[in-house]
Design brief:
Blueprint (H helix, E strand, L loop, with lengths): L4 E5 L3 E7 L9 E7 L4 E10 L5 E11 L3 E6 L4 E6 L4 E6 L7 E7 L13 E7 L2 E6 L4 E5 L7 E3 L7 E8 L2 E6 L3 E6 L9 E4 L8 E6 L6 E6 L4 E5 L8 E3 L6 E6 L7 E5 L4 E6 L24 E5 L8 E7 L2 E6 L3 E6 L27 H10 L8 H10 L2 E6 L5 H16 L3 E6 L2 H14 L8 E5 L2 E3 L6 E5 H10 L6 E6 L7 H16 L4 E6 L5 H6 L5 E4 L6 E5 L7 H15 L5 E5 L3 H17 L7 E6 L5 H4 L17 E6 L2 H4 L6 E6 L2 E8 L4 E8 L2 H9 L7 E5 L3 H6 L14 H10 L16 H13 L11 H8 L4 H9 L6 H13 L5
Parallel strand pairs: 29-35, 29-36, 30-33, 30-34, 31-33, 34-35, 37-44, 38-40, 38-41, 39-40, 41-44
Antiparallel strand pairs: 1-28, 2-3, 3-4, 4-5, 6-7, 7-8, 8-9, 10-11, 11-12, 12-13, 14-15, 15-16, 16-17, 18-19, 19-20, 20-21, 22-23, 23-24, 24-25, 26-27, 27-28, 31-32, 42-43
Enzyme class: hydrolase
Pfam families: DEAD (PF00270), HA2_C (PF21010), Helicase_C (PF00271), WD40 (PF00400), WHD_HA2 (PF04408)
EC number: 3.6.4.13
């Protein structure tokens, strides 16, 4: 092979490089993986020609990668697997239509780790069609298949030391090499986790096996590279000792490669920057007859091997090589991509090494131990194994409907994946709406910890009267009303790449308005992605509303829940609830916490006082019961008490428990681990508008069947649970509605019409409500706004109406507050307005 070396500066150290081989065509595209960067990448390249008809590599796309890229292997023309120094593996696809993006199909997270819970690098991969073998620093051998989300077999203690290389000899045989110079053949037909044969690289010095490869046509012939630079040749059919040993490089061998079409040619590279070509010096024509004795299979190789250096010493490690016919690619730690060509091509190259410090791409600082601690918990969430499916749907569709039970992880994980998608294509942010303020704040706090960033910087929240975000914010949690208000000043919501509507099943007034507005926005913004997330299985209506959007169903992590009903209706549900709490504490022998649903702050505080009084009267021998209230106006530091552990069990065996007394905020918005017993009186406060007297009020109303099912599901999060419904089974089946009545059908539409007018939507009659309000209700709202001078006689928004729309108030209160300036009574009216507005708080 003649020498023709060219280089390309790529500003990153390349750890692996692989040709994308075509079907009987000359390859021109290839992959590289980087290491030792704050953000590592898998980059997809192609060769193009310049004005002088000289080829040069050009980037088609890239994929951000957590950890160093330790291996890249194609399993088909467009599918490949990538290994990480964090012990994870991903199955990715190159989009054959655009060639500009990667699609993630599967992720095997942390399948290599030490018993101390620290991550272990996945050091090597080998593939045989759809089968994948992975080895790592933890001495583990994992067998995967592209069709399964979990390893099909794990050989936990394949080695007592790190395994550095692996090679599929046949579909049922894998060869591994470790840090002590041992090579082991694993017969996968054998259920016992013991190797069929063990080989030793060197009898004199223990040298690590850094790379192994087999002959393309004579698969029993294997060459192993050592960290002393040696090349050792084996015939696995005959001996457990090498046939010959070549004193090759002066430092560790990085990779070994046979030419697939002309296997009498061998290529090696080393960490001291050497790239060598080996072939048979006695043969003028390269022999391909597999029946001949290969030149490596000799007692002595003296005089039989010709070695050619393909480039001047790089003085930097060359970590990976790959050849396609006459073009060899290789890469180095000198942050350049180089190539050696025989005739008319150009080449790139990589590097293999390990970075023990991983950098956060958002802060450019090393990840903290807390990040890895939380990441190990995140990958156990039910939603996590659906990451590849979600990313594929997100890239292919503009709108997705996702159903996931409370506790599946959808609220914390899905938005983070949307941030990854958003950052891969631009600089716009991600918004995730919540129906309740407490959920927006608590989830933002949790996600900021998971992303290892400060709350209010890269991750923030926005609620009424408080904006905890900054220009650096890439993920913002907010109440649905706040996003609606942003839409008044930015109708196309251009600040966002992805918008998620969480807890859409609650059908709040703002959520219904947002769905109607966003349905119009996505028609005008093809780049905007919309994700509708619900905790109930009644998602068909959302799908139909959004033009048959694809549905993704994520099952929760639930256990069986035993349901108990009262034989007769309870006259005083508060008294019955307190009595049930005391009975559970006294009589139930299994440990577990309690969750009691009540309707509002006053009831909750009264219940907590009475429960404490009852427990004090029972004496010191009874297990301690800690009572924790939860409602939306509770200060955030007190809301965090729900995550405190239960009191310990006493010496006499009396079980300590905590009881969380909550509004319906704990139905879906928050997940409280440890709850085994749920007490459901069957009531909640609902906002109801009386059009006759034009007054909104909060009424204690029966809940729906869907809400009752959500409440019962809270008992089965960690173990089998019990739900005590303080109403009869007949009432549940015959009297309760299937779903909560949408708020838009029981609200004053004056503020709705005003907001829609402010958003630029004039044709209210044809506005696409999911559940259209009655025409007479809409007309009454238009008449009211015209009477208040917010709309003119033609139904257009007046200047006064535009100002009124900026106030988060009922139109009458907004008009009263504005008019007070003309009557010198602003302070008094402000106080009155504030007092009247308090009544509108739902929890």
């Amino acid at each position: 092979m003649g020498e023709n070396v060219q280089g390309t500066f790529v500003s990153e150290k390349i750890s692996k490089i692989r040709w994308q081989h075509g079907n009987f065509t000359e390859a021109k595209n290839f992959l590289t993986g980087s290491w030792d960067n704050p953000i590592n990448k898998i980059t997809y390249w192609t060769f193009r020609t310049n004005y002088d008809e000289e080829p040069y590599p050009a980037v088609l796309s890239s994929y951000s990668f957590l950890g160093d890229v330790t291996e890249l292997k194609f399993i088909s023309k467009d599918f490949f697997v990538a290994a990480s120094s964090l012990g994870s593996i991903r199955l990715l696809q190159i989009d054959e239509d655009t060639c500009t993006e990667f699609k993630e199909h599967m992720a095997w997270e942390f399948i290599h780790s030490f018993k101390t819970t620290d991550y272990a690098s996945c050091t090597a991969l080998s593939t045989f069609e759809q089968d994948i073998a992975s080895v790592g620093e933890d001495g583990k051998l994992n067998l995967l298949t592209a069709a399964e989300k979990k390893p099909v077999r794990i050989i936990e203690n394949a080695d007592s030391c790190s395994i550095y290389c692996a090679d599929f000899l046949k579909h049922n045989e894998v060869l591994t090499g470790n840090s002590r110079g041992h090579m082991k053949v694993w017969d996968l037909r054998n259920d016992r986790d013991v190797p069929a044969t063990t080989f030793m690289l060197s009898d004199q010095v223990k040298t690590a096996a850094t790379s192994i490869t087999h002959h393309p046509t004579q698969r029993h012939i294997v060459i192993a590279g050592g960290d002393d630079g040696s090349l050792t040749v084996w015939d696995l059919r005959q001996n457990t000792y090498p046939m010959s040993q070549l004193n090759a490089h002066t430092k560790a061998v990085s990779e070994i490669l046979f030419h697939q079409d002309r296997p009498d040619n061998l290529f090696t590279c080393s960490v001291n920057g050497e790239l060598w070509h080996w072939n048979n010096a006695q043969s003028s024509k390269l022999k391909l007859d597999s029946t001949d004795m290969h030149w490596l299979n000799t007692i002595s190789t003296n005089g039989k091997v010709n070695v050619t250096s393909l480039c001047a010493a790089m003085h930097k490690p060359i970590n990976s090589i790959d050849i396609n016919r006459s073009t060899l690619l290789f890469g180095c730690d000198n942050e350049a991509m180089d190539g050696s060509v025989s005739n008319n091509a150009t080449i790139p190259g990589p590097t293999a090494a390990k970075s023990q410090v991983q950098f956060n791409p958002y802060t450019m600082l090393p990840y903290t131990p807390r990040y890895y601690e939380l990441y190990k918990k995140r990958i156990t969430l039910p939603v996590f194994e659906y990451r590849a499916d979600f990313m594929r749907l997100l890239s292919q569709h503009q709108c997705i409907v996702l159903v996931g039970e409370t506790g599946s992880g959808k609220t914390t994980q899905i938005p983070q994946w949307c941030v990854e998608y958003s950052r891969s294509i631009g600089t716009k942010g991600v918004a995730c709406t919540q129906p309740r303020r407490v959920a927006a704040m608590s989830v933002a706090q949790r996600v900021s910890e998971e992303m290892d960033v400060a709350l209010g910087q890269e991750v923030g929240y926005s609620i009424r009267f408080e904006d905890c975000s900054s220009p650096r914010t890439v993920l913002k949690y907010m109440t649905d009303g706040m996003l609606l208000r942003e839409g008044m000043s930015d109708p196309m919501l251009d600040a966002y790449q992805v918008i998620l509507l969480d807890e859409a099943h609650e059908r709040t007034l703002a959520t219904d308005l947002l769905m109607g507005v966003l349905k119009e926005v996505i028609k005008q913004r093809p780049d905007l992605k919309l994700v509708i997330m619900s905790a109930t299985l009644d998602a068909g209506k959302f799908q139909q509303y959004f033009d048959n959007a694809p549905l993704m169903n994520v099952p929760g992590r639930t256990h069986p829940v035993e349901i108990f009903y009262t034989p007769e209706p309870e006259r005083d549900y508060l008294e019955a609830a307190i009595r049930t709490v005391i009975q559970i504490q006294m009589c139930e022998e299994i440990p577990g916490d309690l969750l009691l649903f009540l309707t509002g702050q006053e009831e909750i505080e009264e219940a907590c006082k009475r429960i404490k009084r009852e427990m004090d009267n029972l004496g010191p021998e009874v297990g301690e019961l800690k009572c924790i209230p939860l409602y939306s106006t509770l200060p955030p530091n007190l809301q965090q008490r729900i995550f405190e552990p239960a009191p310990p069990t006493k010496a006499n065996g009396a079980i300590g428990r905590k009881v969380v007394v909550s509004t319906n905020i704990a139905e879906t918005s928050l997940t409280i681990d440890g709850v085994v017993f749920v007490i459901d009186p069957g009531f909640a406060k609902q906002k109801v508008y009386n059009p006759r007297i034009r007054v909104e009020s909060l009424l204690v109303s029966p809940i729906s069947k869907a809400s009752a099912q959500q409440r019962a599901g809270r008992a089965g999060r960690t173990r089998p649970g019990k739900c005590f419904r303080l109403y009869t089974e007949k009432a549940y089946k015959n009297e309760m509605q299937d779903n909560t009545y949408p708020e838009i059908l029981r609200s004053n539409l004056g503020s709705v019409v005003l907001q829609l007018k402010k958003l630029g939507i004039d044709d209210l009659v044809h506005f696409d409500f999911m559940d259209p309000p009655a025409p007479e209700t809409l007309m009454r709202a238009l008449e009211l706004l015209n009477y208040l001078a917010a709309l003119d006689d033609d139904g257009n928004l007046t200047d006064l109406g535009a100002v009124m729309a900026e106030f988060p108030l009922d139109p009458q209160l907004a008009k009263m507050l504005i008019a007070s300036c003309n009557h010198n009574c602003s302070n008094e009216i402000l106080s009155i307005t504030a007092m009247l507005s308090v009544l509108c708080e739902a929890e």
